[in-house]
């Protein structure tokens, strides 16, 4: 009898659970990651892992609603064994094909957080960890149309002090000082951050470059990330 008495409550809980599951499914995002570079890249994602992509190949990544602190990037000049262990010249994540943590600079980053304040997605391209390949990061659904790109020849024009094999370092990687906002405290743009900002105006050029570098879409939007657009 007690089960029958509680049946309406049980049904209500099941109904609410189904609504929550449906909402989570609706608000989850699909990322279409494509390599347009004339060379192979090893795409990396946290969450997500990693995938080798030849020219023209894509990787479809489904990400749970509410995910934050997420990144997608390209690794270059990698060599992995059959067990998925090896190294990459840029963007290496602990020597693993299937990344479990962030990559090693220099690497161009697509960063995002889903379903945050007011159910908004926040996304950006960041050069705070430097640059290795050009990138396009754009919404593809939900009526959101403002995408961001960083397609300049930053590697070819990189200041001598920031040059690295396969990429261009951000000054924090090289100097690690407060002057470049590498730690907490008051700081602002520098000649090095202006080098990045002048070439990729929509991208983060230093850690406090929020005002012109963070973009939003309604939760439930899908996205594309293109290497060498």
Automatic annotation (TrEMBL):
It is found in: Secreted. Residues 1-28 form the signal peptide. PROSITE patterns: THAUMATIN_1 (PS00316), THAUMATIN_2 (PS51367). SMART domains: THN. Disulfide bonds join 37-228, 78-88, 93-99, 150-200, 158-168, 172-181, 182-187. Gene3D superfamilies: Thaumatin. It comes from the Eukaryota. InterPro entries: Osmotin/thaumatin-like_sf, Thaumatin, Thaumatin_CS. Its main location: secreted. One of its GO terms (cellular component) is extracellular region. Keywords: Disulfide bond, Secreted, Signal. The keyword Secreted applies. Belongs to the thaumatin family. This is Putative thaumatin.
């Amino acid at each position: 009898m007690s089960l029958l008495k509680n049946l309406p409550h049980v049904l209500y809980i099941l109904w609410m659970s189904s609504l929550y599951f449906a909402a989570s499914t609706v608000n989850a995002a699909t990322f279409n990651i494509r390599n347009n570079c004339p060379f192979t890249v090893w795409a990396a994602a946290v969450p997500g892992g990693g995938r080798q992509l030849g020219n023209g190949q894509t990787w479809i990544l489904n990400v749970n609603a509410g995910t934050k602190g997420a990144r997608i990037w390209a690794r270059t000049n990698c060599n992995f064994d059959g067990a998925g262990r090896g190294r990459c010249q840029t963007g290496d994540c602990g020597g693993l094909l299937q990344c479990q943590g962030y990559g090693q600079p220099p690497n161009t980053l697509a960063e995002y957080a889903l379903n945050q304040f007011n159910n908004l997605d926040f996304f950006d391209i960041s050069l705070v960890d430097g640059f290795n390949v050009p990138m396009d990061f754009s919404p593809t659904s939900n009526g959101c149309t403002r995408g961001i790109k960083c397609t300049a020849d930053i590697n070819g024009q990189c200041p001598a002090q920031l040059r690295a094999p396969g990429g261009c370092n951000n000054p924090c990687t090289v100097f690690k000082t407060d002057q470049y906002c590498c730690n907490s405290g008051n700081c602002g743009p520098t000649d090095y951050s202006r080098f990045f900002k002048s070439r990729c105006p929509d991208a983060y050029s230093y850690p406090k470059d929020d005002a012109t570098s963070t973009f939003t879409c309604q939760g439930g939007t899908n996205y594309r990330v293109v290497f060498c657009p």
